[in-house]
Amino acid sequence: MAGRRDGIRRTPAAAGEPPTWAHELLEHLRPAGRDVRRVVDWLAATVHAEVSLQDAAGTLVAGTRLPLAPSLVADLGSGRIASAAWEGDGRHQRLVRIGHGARTCVLAVSRVAPFDRDASDVVTHTAQVIELLLTAHGTSAAGHRLRRATADLRLAILQLLMVEDTVAARRVAAGLWPGLLDADTACVYVVESAPDRRERLVAECLDTTREEALVVRCPAMDGHVIVVSPRETTAADLRSLVGRHPDTFLGGSVWQSLARTATAYGQAVSALAVARFRADKTAVYAERTHPERLMDPAALRSWAARVLRPLDALPHHTRAELLATTRLGLEFTAVNTAKILGVSRNTVRARMERVESMLGVDFDDITARAVVHLALHTQINLLDGQAGTDPGAHSPGLAGLLADEAVGAWARELLGRLDRDTRTVRRTLRTWIAVGGNAERAAQVLGVHAQTVREHMRSAEPVLERQLLASGTDLYEVVLAHLAAGDLEQPVLAGE
């Protein structure tokens, strides 16, 4: 190392080679070293000076604050001059204007020694590097904001679809993705991976579907990506994506109308549970026999309308809001429902408590939840509003609907699968439902350990081919089977 009067560190360089400081400065442009504050600190150490980087408003961006002539800073900030030099009080200063995008900064270097050619070169080149870094950071930040805004817009569209507001969803989507929701039907897919891989998974889903599908980060589950697509090719595209990555799974719904996006989402989540145990890591919701399809359609419609009649006096918007929230609230937890709808969990609970009060039910009772779920499911699947339905028309009521021979046969076959297990799993399941799905209370009634109850429940799921430990359609169908078989008491509703 050799010293010079300018104080700049240097080693002898071969002819034609840049000085050492230039190599060091270039290192700050590498991806791992792109930090404006580190560059400013490096400049201060290299030229043995105090360095300040501030914006036009005087806010310190990096370095140490220096006393600067306001007139010079104003001229630099306005663009009247590009650089300036000042000497006084035993100090020498160099000021350089750095412009990047709509923002202007001033780099000020103050030291005791005068600026010779080498020191001036270091300051000039450092200013260029800082300008590049600030511009790159501004572009990156703008890109991030754009991606965040686009993601928020996709989530807003999904939330509108979840509450059956397809008109508003199409209107919002038309601006950025023309034709995306023009179809009447679509499939919903849920792709699952580790939470720390989700951002890359979102990007791959967008690329794989060529942005011809609605790709949304699930607001409720950190590792899930929701894809809503009206195109038949999406299923194959997503299967190919899942096949390329370990520990990635795909669940898909059957084709549904856009108004039934919430139903399709529930189907995709149910299929995802199956996909985790399949070799190809994918599954599509199985169109199995559902109890409502075994009931007389006219009697079922009349019964559902009568059960929900207490809500008919509400304004249309309020009624639709309460019903949409309750449908999701019966499928998912209040916290996850709130995330899906973009409201607070207290709002979800308040809406569901209002429905409870009006229908005269207690949602802590799983049988009540199952019966209201059946009415809501009937409304959207068979009723499509209230047109053509007379709530006062004769209906055999829930008892009559469940007493149908076809329903009884379905219930006996489903629950009979558990009779082969010698551990009284069927009795455990019935008790667990009766006490509101609480393993500890069920264990007290049965005189066993709570862990035994949980093991029985988990062993019943593959036998019944339904998820039981999570609220949703699967559990409610099993509850209806118990009601039809006479194993549980039927709840009383105000409209019955």
TrEMBL record:
Protein name in the entry: Helix-turn-helix domain-containing protein
Domain of life: Bacteria
PucR C-terminal helix-turn-helix domain residues: 335-377, 426-480
InterPro entries found in the cross-reference section: CdaR-like_regulators, PucR_C-HTH_dom, PucR_C-HTH_sf
